[in-house]
Write a structure and sequence with these properties.
The complex is a heterodimer of chains A (113) and B (118). With 113 residues, chain A is an all-beta fold. Chain A has strands at residues 3-5, 10-14, 19-21, 24-26, 32-39, 46-52, 59-61, 64-69, 74-79, 88-96, 102-103, 107-112. In chain B, 0% of the residues lie in helices and 51% in strands. Chain B has strands at 4-7, 10-13, 19-25, 32-38, 44-51, 57-58, 67-73, 76-81, 90-97, 108-109, 113-117. Classes of the chains: A mainly beta (113), B mainly beta (118).
């Protein structure tokens, strides 16, 4: 069975701090996809990244970076120099090819000025 | 990028009435649409998957007679909550996906519909 675990329920940081959101997944598929979504208070899901199981290269996009490690089944997300606008709930998700998304329980990030 | 809309964005209805939520893919053909439900401070739970022209596949525990899903065209899916009750109050989110291909796989999410049943 597929499963996504986000052990951190809530994280609070002060602006400009770096913060890492953890994501651990379980799957028996050899081909799978991992995602991160941001859900601000408005409720609309914002797509951040998709990574397939054959690409373990880390990715950096501005202040965001992702660390994918198949050996530990983890796909962690780091925000560098956090800002108040980063406050949101962040979801990690997993799917197989052309399959449904399995979401983690989400991590609520609060960035205080 | 692909855009998915939902209508209405919020709705209040009385207990016992039915309410319909529309999900539209605006600039692509969605062969598959998904309906999710999200309670406050909880994760998204998949309710059902619908393929255009076919009956929806419901997840375990979701009442198909209560949550009617229609995916009659490649750009429109509807979710009808029948005989709504206060416990059906939730945030309903749809997503749409085109035909799987070597490069296209994304689910594009709508902005959600907040349903309050009084």
């Amino acid at each position: 069975a597929q499963k996504v675990t986000q052990a951190q329920t809530e994280i609070s940081v002060v602006e400009k701090e770096d913060v890492t959101l953890d994501c651990v997944y379980e799957t028996r598929d050899t081909t799978y996809y991992l995602f991160w979504y941001k859900q601000p208070p408005s409720g609309e899901l914002v797509f951040l990244i998709r990574r397939n199981s054959f690409d373990e290269q880390n990715e950096i996009s501005g202040r965001y970076s992702w660390n994918f490690q198949k050996s530990t089944s983890s796909f962690n997300f780091t925000i560098t120099a956090s800002q108040v606008v980063d406050s949101a709930v962040y979801f990690c998700a997993l799917s197989g090819w052309a399959d449904k998304l399995i979401f983690g329980t989400g991590t609520r990030l609060q960035v205080f000025p | 990028g692909a855009v998915v809309s939902q209508h209405p964005s919020w709705v209040i209805c009385k207990s016992g009435t039915s309410v319909k939520i529309e999900c539209r893919s605006l600039d692509f053909q969605a062969t598959t649409m998904f309906w999710y439900r999200q309670f406050p401070k909880q994760s998204l739970m998949l309710m059902a998957t619908s393929n255009e022209g076919s009956k929806a596949t419901y997840e375990q525990g979701v009442e198909k007679d209560k949550f009617l899903i229609n995916h009659a065209s490649l750009t429109l899916s509807t979710l009808t909550v029948t005989s709504a009750h206060p416990e059906d109050s939730s945030f309903y989110i749809c997503s749409a996906r085109g035909s799987p291909s070597a490069t296209s796989y994304e689910q594009y999410f709508g902005p959600g519909t907040r349903l309050t049943v009084t």
